[in-house]
Amino acid sequence: MISFIFRRCLLAIPTLLIISILGFVIIQLPEGDFLDRKIQELEEMYGDSSSLARIDELRARYGLDRPMWQQYISWISGFVVGDFGESFEYEREVNDLIWGRLGFTLLISVGSLIFTYSVAIPLGIYSASHQYQWSDHVLTFISFIGMSIPGFLLALALMVFFFEVFRIPLFGLFSAEFEGMPWSWNKGIDLIKHLWIPVIVVGLNGTAGLMRIMRGNLLDVLGQPFVQTARAKGLKESVVVVKHAVRIAINPLITIFGMSLPNILSGSTIVSIVLGLPTVGPLLLRSLLTEDIFLAGTLLMMFSLLLIIGNILADIALAWADPRIRL
Amino acid sequence: MSLNSPKEVHETWSASLDESDAGHLSYRTLIWRRFRKNRMGLIAGGILIGLYVIALGADFIAPFHYNNINILVRHVPPQAIHYSWTDGFHVYGLKSTQHTETLELIYESDPKQIFRIKYLTSDVNDQIRLFSSEGPMYLLGTDRMGRDLLSRMIYGGRVSLTIGIIGVFLSLILGSVLGTVSGYFGGWTDVVVQRGIEILAAFPPIPLWMALGAALPPGWSSLQTYFGITIILSIISWGGLAREVRGKVLVFRDQDYTIAAVTAGAGHWYIISRHLLPGCYSHIIVVATLAIPGMILGETALSFLGLGIRPPMTSWGVLLEEAQRVTVLLHYPWLLFPALPVLIVVIAFNFLGDALRDAADPYSG
Amino acid sequence: MRFSYSKNNKFISFIYFILVLSSCSQQIENQDQFTSTSGRDQLEAPLLARQVAQGSLPPLEDRLPETPLVAKHPFEGYEEEGIYGGVWHHMHTNTDLGSWKMIGGYAPIIRWNWACTDLEPGLAEAWAFNEDGSELTLKLRKGLKWSDGQPYTSASFAFWYELCLDDRHRYAPPVWCLVDGKPMTVETPDDWTIVMKFAGPNWLVPLWLATGFWWCEEYNIPEQFMKQYHPDHNSEYTDFVEFEKKNLSHRNENRPSLWPWKISKIDQGGFQIHLERNPYYYVVDDLGRQLPYIDKVVTSLVPESQVRVLKVLAGDVDCQFRSLELRDLSLFLEGRQKGNYKIKMWKSASGAEPAINLNWSDNDPVLRQLIRNQNFRKALSLGIDREKCNAIAYRGLLEPQAATVSEEAWHFVDKEGAALFDLWKKSDADFNLELGNRLLDDMGLTKRDEADYRVRPDGQRLSIVLDTPSSKNIVHENDIALIVAEGWEALGIEVVIYTPPGAELKLRRDLGEFTVHLHSEGEMDLFTYPDWVFPTSAKYWHPQVGKWYESGGTKGEAPTGVMKEFLDIYDQIKREKDLQKRHTLVQEAVKLHIDQGPFHLGTVGRMRMPIIVKNTFHNVPDEGILGPWAIVAPGISFPEQYYMDPQ
User: Fold this and answer.
1) Which CA distances in Å does B339 have to A147, B335, B346?
2) By the 8 A CB rule, do B91 and B136 touch?
3) In chain B, at which end, N or C, are there fewer CB atoms within 10 A of the end residue's CB?
């Protein structure tokens, strides 16, 4: 087992390197570079791009006239000292941009994970222990709806609903009064007020799916002989279910948890775009669409790293849970 | 324990599953029988077949062409169908006035104008349609260009539903072949394939998407672009399936019957096709069925980002993206209807997949 | 067998707790310390007066120039002199703050006046050419100061021009500094005089100095501040890399500026920008009180259009000029009461929203022949159902017309000009499929293939690729493309709508590889931005001829026939001293468009642009022109004289 983990971690390094190279190339595959895109965007939005009067100079300043391998080398060599390059769009260090957003991203993702697990597990248990009763059917149906609504639609609908009916504006993470102001108790409350829509929308998909899995696993376990024995011994049903069955049924969920690790950063992307949240997902999307190569490349590496770690964890969990597998 | 031939091993195993049928039943029949008992699965399957038939028959079933622009009927709310002895099924005409302040168009039904619903008549382009009428017949309302939403949903369904199936089918082939090979042979093959999957999976689908999308020649019609896009979608997603299959194969590889087959001298292909894959079939089918809704939702997400199906073609994702505005939610909420078929299809596929999984898994029940 | 609900209970009470918290309405204290309620009797903002009293700021007479610029307001909507104070909340969509600079970033040496019919003094009090137009003398106001108190003198302009000539620095002298390829020379006989000497007559230079916010941003360099990053003055630096970074106003809060509000804080990578009043600002109101009235501006980056809509409806925005769509107009109209704002309908002064540009030098020789045939272009124009475009894309608020520049442009102000413009608007702007089909038949394109499309002279199907921006970005152009396609298909032409993602469209335009593309069109001054009418740049409907002109004849396609006529007229304009004669020359070019055109096809024009103005926000013009960036609207309305009611 240890040697397996060690081997995988070692393999991760060349993998990441290859990903960085291929990613860098792919980011620039679409026609044109950052400046071309910026000009087109200015023209589309305002009909005019004269404000970008010095295009060739800008191109030289951004280093966009250098060959790709040169750009790559200068970027990747900065990794060692923690310098991830500069973003063209925002004209500041990639570091500055990411760390600020990272906090909010984690807040939403962790929040939605907590939401997901704390809602899905009890509901799954309930559903399994009341199998085929009407409450089970209702829950199953609701969970399916939750799994199939496109997130962007739900986010916008909730936002508009709350705005129209309750006149509570819930876009962004802060109300106008608190933006840019230093942290305070009121600002924290404001944040929580804004946070619950993204948390619920992001968590909804996962909740439904997880609930189904919990239900399925628990049903499997409840059919096992040892459960019958426990009941025969006279144990209360709740004790049987919670103390004995759930413990076993929950194991696969750990695997799933490992696999949802990469989604921590990207899962809230679409919802964040709709609600205008300052998180990492929209940053990545925008940087990819505008070919902001260093920002996009760095974010890509972060996502890849998480994915690789998640895969390793998932593999470990798989091997640990199922002794039949020899690796 | 005497060594039986692989064929006998297989048959005794499957025969033990269903006591009520002595003799040799094929694996497929067994699955079908078990599946039949699951009511939800049957209903879901029925709904899906119905939807696919409607979608594929869009030219015939939809009342209008999906790009039938008509400025006189922009943003019409859904109309009702009325029935009377004299006129049969009919719709009322519309009168429109413009709100002085908000400049919105307000429509009123005019009971004096009666337009009968005609059946199996041909329209302007000599296309025979099941239902049509000479007047406005907008059962789900119209959009900003006066195009009938119901028709656009049906035509859009044709695109979305087929993308789901074709895309998953391609992923299936690619994924199961590679997954099996990787799991069975192990060693360096496994490592290479797994790393390859990882690298592919770590790729941001969006720039890959844009690059490939931009590489499609400008002269291609929407249809050709659509096929190109489907292929691209499936290429990106086969990795997950390969991983699943590999997991299963790893389990089966070490089963007694496999070892027995190897000892009996069976060749690689024989073992793969007769022992490993059948164990995986159920899993593959279930995973595929459950992947289709993912692909449909993926198409909606891509269209939302503006990278999906391009006009003049339409799909559910395009329709939902057009509805993604505050103005729509507040003033023209009927444009949100396309969310309903997406929901139904995804739920149906999930029920179907669940039922298939229960039916195919020899260890359940 | 009762199942224990304990797990569920805990969770439910947690949710309840959150809901209770969020439903408590909080009276949030306005933590803004800049609000003040007095001011009409004072000559400067109370905020600044306090600082003067404390001794941290020089008194007003020392801060203003000897003859400050008096803000003008020749428009409806100006109520009265304002009170000091307030925070202006605004939204921008791009990190380079372009939309804000159009408001508060206009500090040029010479300004456009409100009607864009003439130039007025800005940082310069007066300017004059010599006899033959080869020398321009500018007289700056004495006593102008940067926002950090340093004097603004002619040295600043000289410093900028030095950089342009410096090889180590990336900037080259801008095109308007060159005559016949030779750059100008700049002399500064004293602190308040700038003399620009050219190799020949260069009458358009004052227009260039006044155009756009980007030129004045460039030539207004705080040389005292920037010297610390200049390698010649600071041995720490060996190149201009750091210099260029620090020279960007939207990136460097410390950089002194001449704007009414200077940038005080850049938050979160441009997500939110704070601007505070410039104590040395050189503009005053009619009573001699120093502007601006408003103390502070907070502008937030809001890239998602629906969030912008909701912010407006929620009343979070005090005054917003751009980044709002006409499609949401009814929503904005409905929400006026709840959001406590009014809507002022400005115009974008556009002549074509969008224009349909046909590539005069199409790569395909057969198509090129066809496009150069006037009747072909007329037929295409007759195939556009402009009423439909108007109804669907703009709710019928715009006007169907041929592709023109702005009707308000100063070339068409006189009677003949106006009459000519009217003719231009109507030329070939009807929707007449019958006539269109007839014209195509008369051209000899009578053969049809099996799909009933016309066949070209070389036997292939007549097919046109229409470059269209993706519907995600500009829905109305997409819709119009569909309508145009419908019309042309009725003429027997196959239309392929091409909407590639990314910057592909722009690249195809730059390289001239398109056949047809859409571009909105409007321009107030054809002298500085002639390329709608004259093929002077590698853009729009004349990529190759324009390239020839831009490169001085080395690349592209040499102009012949009517193209040459256009360019000859423009060259005359550049050399012409008399303004009125220049206008006449422009009108001659327009006549060519009417007689030998259409070179690019129009759809609808006169776009309306809703401006959101809170009811507590005053002195914003009721009507104005917002479109072409060259004239920097609303900067030319002196936004420093907008004021807000006390909180």
Assistant:
1) 13, 9, 11
2) yes
3) N
